[in-house]
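**Sequence, structure tokens**
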Amino acid sequence: MLASHFASSLLYNKYRRALPLLRIPFSVYLMPVFWFGLSALREPFSPWRAVGVFVVLHLLAYPASNGYNSYYDRDEGSIGGLRQPPPVSRELLHLVWLFDGLAVLGGALLSLPFAGLVAVYLLVSKAYSYEGIRLKKYPLVSTLVVVVFQGAYTFLMTQVGVGASPAAILASDNLLLAMVSTLFLCGSYPLTQVYQHQEDARRGDRTLSLRLGIRGTFVFAGVALGVGAALLVAVYAQRNEWPHALLFLTATLPVVGLFGRWAWLVWHDASAANFDHTMRMNQVSSLCLSAAFVVMLLWRWW
């Protein structure tokens, strides 16, 4: 009896130690795409379905993707959301499979098309990390996969999940907004790699940021984010949603200021491209953009 209790306690502790590598809090940084997708809809949707989509994506699918990536990366230094990641174990993979299954099952409870989209997302995320395929080691392919699937794909997947009509989803202005989300990811994704050059080089992953260099990463990010912002304002103007454009520009002022200051610091000292600055940039940009899109959503329906 005592031996059985000890074994159960040991197993529990193994899973508990593996759980942080799912980086559930880090998934919050991807919230802007979710809120953006909802705020872009011009037809009503169920708030409860929106809650369901949020749970499936941010509490199940994204953590599963994070955990799988951690399992094959086996990082020794800081990673997104974890300054000191714990050692990787087989239990982490078990948790990934559990979260994968729950994400697809949860998606199916909302709709089968949504579940299918979630399953595709999870499979692509596996191809990104799995050592036998490892899309991550190809700078252009990996960037394209991330910015499309965490950008436009997730934007549209969110709308499918809440039951938006095909006409609303495939409307030209909505597809342009989906493209905006990809441009924003195109700017922010390399910034998340900028402090991991040594780790990525050690594994043989030629990431986009590694190829661009530290300064090049900031230039690339600035251009992509600027183009995305310009397109967003243009689409809002086309939709006669000038208050939304003004709200977006106002909400992103702290982001622009922080990015500019960080770039200035990096230009004078490359060591400023570190974990702390990256996480702060993620936090501020995620909160500001999410707040803007939530206000737009409330403005439209309340």
